[in-house]
Design a protein that fits this description.
The structure is a homodimer. The first copy, chain A, is mostly helical. The first copy, chain A, has a three-stranded mixed sheet. In chain A, strands 4-5-6 form a three-stranded mixed sheet. In chain A, a hairpin with a 5-residue loop joins β2 and β3. In chain A, α12 packs across α13 and α19 crosses α23. Chain A is built from 23 helices and six strands.
Chain lengths: 449, 449
C-alpha cells in the first residue's frame, strides 16, 4: 500500500520551491522511510525532492525504492545527471540496477563513471547468478598488517563513510592477499595497548568464501558462524569482495520464495505477484501445467488398458481418486522431507540407503493405518467383504510406492547434478498417480479373478 | 558428517594430560570450528577439553554444539559445575538451552545463577514462541544520552566483552526508555569532536520492534532497513532486548523449512530429518495424511452418486485422474502464489477482489490451453467427436475452480486469523478433486444425455 501521508505536503513544497523544507524531509528519517514516503510521487517529482539532498544521500534513498521505480528514475533524466547519483551507490546495487535499465542507458551511465568504478561494475556483473561473486560488493576495509591499532582506527575514521561495513576489517599484505580479519570491537578493545600491530591482533583463521561458491554455501557459513560479513577471495586468495548480513538475508528470503514457487510448478516471479501481469503469470504457470498435463496422459492410457475390467467390476471406480491422492500425499511428504534435508545440509546423497530404509518403514506404518481406515470404508461400498480387501491392499502398496518414489527421486536428481527441488510435489504426485492406478487394478484383478 | 580430523590427537592429549596442547586447541580457531572438531567426542571427553578454556570461551564453544549435544553436556556434570559455563552464554541461548534439558536440571542450574541473570532468563522464557520477545536477548549496550562521544567510547571499551553487539548502541534516559540509537561508526566519526553529547549525535527515529510483535514483522523491518540489529521495547517504550542479524537469519532459515513442511502436510520437525525417529516422523506425517484421507472419502461418495452413469458411459472413467490432477495442480499454483505474496507482505486480504479477477482471468487462459490439448486426446478416446467435448469443457471449468478455490481459501483463512499456509497444497488439491469429479460428471450428463 503506497504511503500517501506526506504526498500533499511534498507536492506543496515542490510547488512553492520550499528548499529548506525539502532538505529537512530528506535528512530527517532513515533513508528507507524517506523512500517509503516518496512512493506516490512521479519520477520528476521525486527528483525534484532528491535534488535537495547531497549526492550520497540521494543514492541511498534511491537504493530503497522498488526496483522498477529506480529504473523509472534513471530513465527520467539524462544519463550524465543521473550517473553521479548512481556512482555513490555500492557496487552490488549498481550492478543490479544497471542490469535492469535499458542497455543503452546503462552504457551511457557507466561511461560517466570513474575508471575504477566502471571496472568494478563490469567485473561484478560477469559473475554467474547464484554465486558469491554475484552477491558481493567491493567496498570493504582493507588494512595493512603493519598498522598499529591506533593507526588503524584513524584510517578507519577517514574511510568510514565509503565502506559497506566498518565492523569487520580485512587485513591484507602488499599483494592484496587476505591474511587476517580484525573487528572494530577488537581494535576498540586494543586501544589500551595502542602500539600493537594489526598482525598481532588479527585472527588469521579467516572464514571466507570463494568468488565462485554457490550462494547456499555462503549462507551456510554465515549462519553457522553468526557472521556479520564474509570476505570473498579469488583463486589466488586475493580479497575481491564482501557479503554483508543484509545481503545474505535478502538472498535467503528470495530463495525461500523461489523454492515455494518451484514446489508448486510455477516459474519463479521476477516482480511481486500483484505487479506481474496476468499474461506473464499465465506463461510462468502454463508451461509447467502443460508439462504435468501431458504427463497425466499416461494415466488415461493406463486406465484404458483396464477399461474392460472396470466395466466388469464397476464399483472399483469410486476408489480411484482416494487411492491416487493418498499415494500422492505420502509421496509429497517424502519428497519435501528429503529436499528440505538436502537444502539444509542435514543429509546428502550418500545417505540414500538409510533414507530408503526409513521411508520404507514409514511407508509400511502409514500404509497400514490408511489401509485400516480404507478397509472400513470399503466394507460399506463393495459387494462382498472379501472384495473389500482390494482397497487396503492397494493402499499399503501405494503409500509405500509414494514414500519410496518421493524420497529417491530428489536424491537421483541431485546425484546427476540437477536441482532436487525440481522433482517435487506435482511431478512426484503425477508419477505416483500412474503407479497408483496400475497397482490398484492389478491388485483388484489378482484378488477378484 | 562428523569431522574426525582432530579426534585422535584430542584423545591423545587428554590421555597424556597435555594442558598446553588442549588450551592451544581451544583458543586457536573460531569457536564454531572448535566445536565442529569436537563433534565426535563423548560428553566426558568434551568437558575434559573445555576445562582448558576460560569460562566464557567454554560457553561460546558449547553454544555451537548441536542442541542435543549441548543437552548431553549439561547432563553429564553436576549442575553446580555446569552453571558457571551456562551463565556466560547470552540470555537467549540460555533460554533455548534450559528449555531443552530436564526440568529439574534446568532449575538446579538456574538456582546457581545471579539474581539478575535468573530474572532475565525467566522473563525471556515467558514470551510466546514466534514473537520478538522469544528471539531477543538482553545483552545490549545502553548508554545515557548525557555522555560525550569520548566517554561513550570508553564505556563501550569497558563493556565490549559482555555485549551481543557493540555496533548499535541504544541511548536511554534515566528510566530506561529508548530515546535514540548511535552506531559505533557514528561515534568513531564523531571522535574529531569529542565533546559532543550522544543526544546530539544520536538518531532519534529509532526503528524498533515491540516485544509482542510477530517474528515475521521483525524480519520485514530488518530486511527492509538492512538492520544489523533491532532494539525491542515494551509497551512503555522501555528498552528490554535486542535481536541481532544472526538470530533473525536463523529464524528465517527455520521458518522457510517449516513452511515447506506445512505445505506438504507434515508437522514441522524439531530435529533434523535423519535424527528424527521413524515413529515420531510417522506421527508427524500420519496425522495429516489421515485427515486428508478422510477428506478424500467425499470423492468416494461423490463417485458413488454417479456410479450408474459411469456404467452407462464407461469411457468417461479414463479421464478422471487427468481432470482432477489438472485442477489440483492449478489450485496448488494459485494457493502458493497467494500464500507467498501474503507472507512477503506483497499482498493483503484487502486485495481479494483484484486477486480474484486476476485468478479468474488466468483460470480462463490456462483452462483454454489445457482444454485444447485435452480435446485432442479425447478425440482419440471417445466414441464420437461430439462426446469428446466433455473433456475440454470440464477442463476449463475445473482449472477455473482450481484458481478460484486455490486463491480465495488462503485469504479466507487469513481473514479469520488462521495461518493461510494451512490451506495449502494437499488441502486445496483435495477440495478440488471433489469439485473436479462433480463438474466432470455433471458436464458429461449435460452434454451426453
Amino acid at each position: 500500500m503506497i504511503n500517501t501521508l506526506y504526498l500533499p505536503e511534498l507536492r506543496e513544497m515542490l510547488a512553492e520551491n520550499d528548499s529548506d523544507g525539502l532538505r529537512e524531509f530528506c535528512t530527517a528519517l532513515h533513508p528507507a522511510r524517506t523512500a517509503e514516503f516518496m512512493e506516490g510521487l512521479s519520477p520528476e517529482e521525486a527528483w525534484g525532492v532528491l535534488d535537495h539532498a547531497d549526492l550520497s544521500l540521494q543514492g541511498e534513498i534511491l537504493s530503497y525504492f522498488d526496483y522498477h521505480r529506480q529504473v523509472e528514475m534513471l530513465e527520467a533524466r539524462p544519463p550524465e545527471s543521473v550517473a553521479p547519483v548512481v556512482a555513490t551507490m555500492s557496487a552490488d546495487d549498481q550492478v543490479d540496477l544497471l542490469g535492469e535499465v535499458e542497455e543503452e542507458t546503462a552504457e551511457q551511465i557507466l561511461a560517466c563513471f570513474s575508471v575504477d568504478d566502471r571496472r568494478d561494475v563490469l567485473r561484478l556483473s560477469n559473475y554467474e547468478e547464484g554465486t558469491a561473486g554475484a552477491i558481493m560488493t567491493t567496498e570493504m576495509a582493507r588494512l595493512s598488517e603493519n598498522l598499529t591499532a591506533r593507526e588503524a582506527l584513524k584510517e578507519l575514521t577517514d574511510q568510514a563513510e565509503h565502506l559497506e561495513t566498518i565492523y569487520y576489517l580485512y587485513v591484507v599484505d602488499d599483494f592484496g592477499s587476505l591474511h587476517g580479519v580484525v573487528s572494530t570491537r577488537d581494535i576498540v578493545s586494543a586501544l589500551s595497548k595502542p602500539q600493537k600491530h594489526l598482525s598481532e591482533i588479527m585472527e588469521t583463521e579467516v572464514i571466507h568464501a570463494n568468488v565462485l561458491d554457490d550462494q547456499e554455501d555462503v549462507l551456510r557459513k554465515m549462519a553457522d558462524y553468526d557472521l556479520l560479513a564474509i570476505p570473498v577471495v579469488d583463486e589466488e586468495l586475493r580479497l575481491v569482495g564482501i557479503i554483508t548480513h543484509d545481503d545474505i538475508l535478502d538472498v535467503v528470503v528470495e530463495e525461500a520464495a523461489e523454492d515455494a514457487y518451484r514446489a508448486a510448478a510455477v516459474e519463479p516471479l521476477e516482480e511481486t505477484y500483484l505487479r506481474t501481469s496476468v499474461l506473464t503469470l499465465s506463461r510462468k504457470r502454463g508451461v509447467w501445467l502443460a508439462v504435468l498435463f501431458v504427463g497425466a496422459f499416461l494415466t488415461t492410457f493406463a486406465l484404458e488398458q483396464f477399461e474392460s475390467d472396470l466395466e466388469r467390476i464397476p464399483w472399483l471406480v469410486i476408489f480411484i481418486p482416494l487411492v491416487i491422492s493418498t499415494g500422492g500425499n505420502s509421496g509429497n511428504q517424502s519428497a519435501t522431507l528429503v529436499i528440505t534435508a538436502l537444502n539444509k545440509g542435514e543429509a546428502s546423497v550418500r545417505d540414500w540407503w538409510i533414507i530408503m530404509r526409513r521411508e520404507l518403514a514409514m511407508g509400511l506404518i502409514l500404509g497400514l493405518i490408511m489401509a485400516f481406515m480404507g478397509m472400513l470404508l470399503a466394507l460399506f461400498k463393495s459387494p462382498t467383504p472379501y472384495s473389500a480387501l482390494v482397497v487396503p491392499t492397494t493402499l499399503v502398496l501405494v503409500v509405500i510406492a509414494g514414500t519410496l518414489i518421493g524420497s529417491m527421486l530428489p536424491l537421483m536428481f541431485k546425484k546427476i547434478g540437477l536441482d532436487p527441488a525440481l522433482m517435487s510435489n506435482p511431478f512426484v504426485a503425477g508419477l505416483i498417480d500412474l503407479f497408483g492406478i496400475v497397482i490398484y487394478l492389478k491388485v483388484a484383478l489378482l484378488l477378484l479373478e
